[in-house]
């Protein structure tokens, strides 16, 4: 098993069921041109977790030295859900095969 | 107490409080935000122009707009705050609007272009939330490209 450091969005579970209390399985994948990426892609999160907390999580774990950037998350690699949106709603709308796939992109967006 | 709202700006896109008696009792501040999507010809990208007013008609300052930016973006905005969010003359209305500087937008969109069937929605869903414009999560349903 992998060592657990700060793991704010939960630990890996092999299966998840579609009930309210159970965690939702998400896959965090790097967008095409990302140079650093997380080895571990499968995560289980509370259904009411906000996208903003996952953005923070990706930022901490992928962009350790790059605090000046933001991590952007996308569903279908094309739409960024609002930061206050919860995983449960996104899973119900965009989930496939029992999981929600989110791509993260850390290209500098402004300036 | 006469409301000055009608005198200070033209056609707001949002409705605002017209019953002044409600203003005295409320402790919550109500702000009105107006957004325009413009095409920037120099950079060949869409840009977001916006303004925000308090209920007394006063424009929010740049500092106040920053204060309202969501925490999840703040880290990346802190460093070059004053070059990222600027105030510029609206190309058509000819009055000051805040705008996110577009110089990196093209590069940013490059990485997403392939997978998106509507790059405008992709762009707006990325940049809008930073300045308070949130899209319903169902907007993304029609955006994935056919090849996905």
UniProtKB/TrEMBL annotation, chain A:
Give the matching InterPro entries: Atg12, Ubiquitin-like_domsf
Q: Which domain of life is it from?
A: Eukaryota
Q: Which GO terms describe its molecular function?
A: Atg8-family ligase activity
Keyword Signal carried by entry: no
| GO terms (BP aspect) | autophagosome assembly; autophagosome maturation; autophagy of mitochondrion; glycophagy; piecemeal microautophagy of the nucleus
One Gene Ontology term, aspect cellular component: autophagosome membrane
Q: Which Pfam families match?
A: APG12 (PF04110)
Q: Which UniProt keywords apply?
A: Autophagy, Isopeptide bond, Ubl conjugation pathway
Q: Where is this region: Disordered?
A: 1-20
Similarity comment: Belongs to the ATG12 family.
Record-linked PANTHER family: AUTOPHAGY PROTEIN 12, UBIQUITIN-LIKE PROTEIN ATG12
Please describe what this protein does.
Answer: Ubiquitin-like protein involved in autophagic vesicle formation.
Q: How does it assemble?
A: Forms a conjugate with ATG5.
UniProt protein name = Ubiquitin-like protein ATG12
Q: Which organism is it from?
A: Diploptera punctata
TrEMBL record, chain B:
> Is the keyword Transferase in the record?
yes
Q: Which GO terms describe its biological process?
A: autophagosome assembly; autophagy of mitochondrion; protein modification by small protein conjugation
- What InterPro entries does the database record attribute to this sequence? Atg3/Atg10
Superkingdom assignment:
Eukaryota
Q: Which UniProt keywords apply?
A: Autophagy, Transferase, Ubl conjugation pathway
Of the GO CC terms on this record, one is: cytosol
Q: What is an example of a GO molecular function annotated in this UniProt entry?
A: Atg12 conjugating enzyme activity
PANTHER family assigned to the protein according to its UniProt record, in alphabetical order:
UBIQUITIN-LIKE-CONJUGATING ENZYME ATG10
Report the sequence similarity comment from the record: Belongs to the ATG10 family.
Name of the protein = Ubiquitin-like-conjugating enzyme ATG10
Q: Which organism is it from?
A: Diploptera punctata (Pacific beetle cockroach)
């Amino acid at each position: 098993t992998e060592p657990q450091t700060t793991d704010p969005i939960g630990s890996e579970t092999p299966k998840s069921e579609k009930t309210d209390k159970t965690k939702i399985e998400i896959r965090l994948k790097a967008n095409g041109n990302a140079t650093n990426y997380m080895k571990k892609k499968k995560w289980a999160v509370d259904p009411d977790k906000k996208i903003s907390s996952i953005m923070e999580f990706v930022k901490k774990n992928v962009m350790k030295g790059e605090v000046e950037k933001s991590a952007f998350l996308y569903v279908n690699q094309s739409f960024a859900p609002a930061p206050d949106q919860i995983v449960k709603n996104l899973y119900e709308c965009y989930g496939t095969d029992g999981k929600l796939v989110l791509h993260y992109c850390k290209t500098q967006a402004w300036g | 107490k006469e409301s000055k709202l009608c005198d200070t700006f033209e056609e707001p896109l949002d409705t605002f409080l017209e019953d002044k008696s409600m203003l005295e009792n409320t402790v919550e501040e109500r702000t009105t935000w107006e957004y325009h999507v413009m095409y920037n010809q120099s950079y060949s990208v869409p840009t977001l122009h916006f303004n925000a007013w308090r209920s007394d008609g006063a424009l929010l300052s740049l500092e106040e707009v920053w204060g309202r930016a969501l925490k999840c973006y703040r880290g990346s905005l802190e460093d070059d705050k004053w070059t990222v969010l600027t105030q510029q003359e609206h190309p058509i209305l000819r009055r000051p609007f805040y705008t996110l500087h577009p110089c990196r937008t093209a590069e940013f969109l490059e990485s997403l272009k392939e997978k998106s069937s509507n790059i405008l929605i992709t762009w707006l869903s990325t940049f809008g939330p930073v300045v308070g414009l949130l899209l319903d999560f169902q907007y993304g349903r029609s955006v994935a490209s056919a090849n996905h």
